[in-house]
Protein: Glucosamine-6-phosphate isomerase
Amino acid sequence: MRLIIREDPKAVAYYTANYVRQRINEFKPTRNRPFVLGLPTGSTPVEVYWHLVDFYKRGEVSFRNVITFSMDEYVGLPRSHPESYCSFMHRHLYDHINLRPENIHMLDGNAEDLAAECQRYEEKIKEVGGIELFLGGIGPDGHIAFNEPGSSLESVTRVKTLAYETVLANARFFGGDVNKVPKLALTVGVGTVRAAREVLLIITGAHKAVALAKCIEEGVNHMWTVSVIQLHPSAMVVCDEDATLELHVKTVRYFKSIEQVQEQLIGRQNISLKGSISKLVGYDPDQAYRPIADPSANEKSALDTDSSDVSHQDESDQGSITDSADDDQYSVDQSEDDGESDNVQEMDRNTLSATELTASGSSEANGTRTNGSLVPAAVTGNPF
Structure:
């Protein structure tokens, strides 16, 4: 398991969105070989989604051959309700990118047979070849999706009764009234998440520090369902400094040192996007190690050497992403053949930080910047 530590939630959001962008581009999805992405709801991933929308608008990523599966949905809440997770995903992501409608998969909390709906969802995931990357957040009690403490680590998509703490936490989305919060939800299982070929968790804030400590430093425990990622062969946690407050100092130093050694001694050119070492080009075992206070300090210099490795084909052989001013929707030229890749600009922006993005003269999808700092959405309002 990899632990990536960044200064604050904004840096975590940018790193995560940029990683997802790179994974999609590296995969080079086609209609016959789509990139299957599992996506979370809740407040944690909102800024990640805004960055992904921004990347799309810049032509740095296409979602035309991406298939998505949302993690959960409330039971009994109309899909049109502003706090349904269907509305959430459309509001923050789906309505602003070129994702094909038939490639969007969400649980139906109003299905007549909820058990059959959950089984259908699992079968649909298998039908498309499984999830390539599952992005997720966690609750303060360490739950993934709505897999509350005590959930089976082998569980699949099912109906779940929400813990009172979860109902209280979600009351803020319902005017602070706990009576308006649905008490049941449909959720992918812990086993569903584990079955993904890669899992990336976002953990930010001091209120989730205990959960991170349980995930990293203690054993696998169904009372802290996040801990199951210790068993996953390709898992990564991206967190901020506040989330590490309950970790031992030596644990934080260890994971930071791994990133620094890879950066300085092994070289980015020898490290895959997932962090594995597959080659040693220009590697000098006698090179002196120079400690870096903050691994992200080298991100700007790495811009000159990293490549998104996005393949380009003749423009006539590919679909194009266009911005239609008439209906404010993004249309896709459907003339491409099924086996062709999307036309994505090749940009060396793999590790560019959010502040550096501003310095380059660009504006973010999630608001404005003042003196190089991102103004929170609460100040700027929803950018869409």
Q: What stands out?
A: The chain has one domain: 2-368. The two ends are 35 Å apart (CA to CA). The domain at 2-368 is CATH 3.40.50.1360 (Rossmann fold).
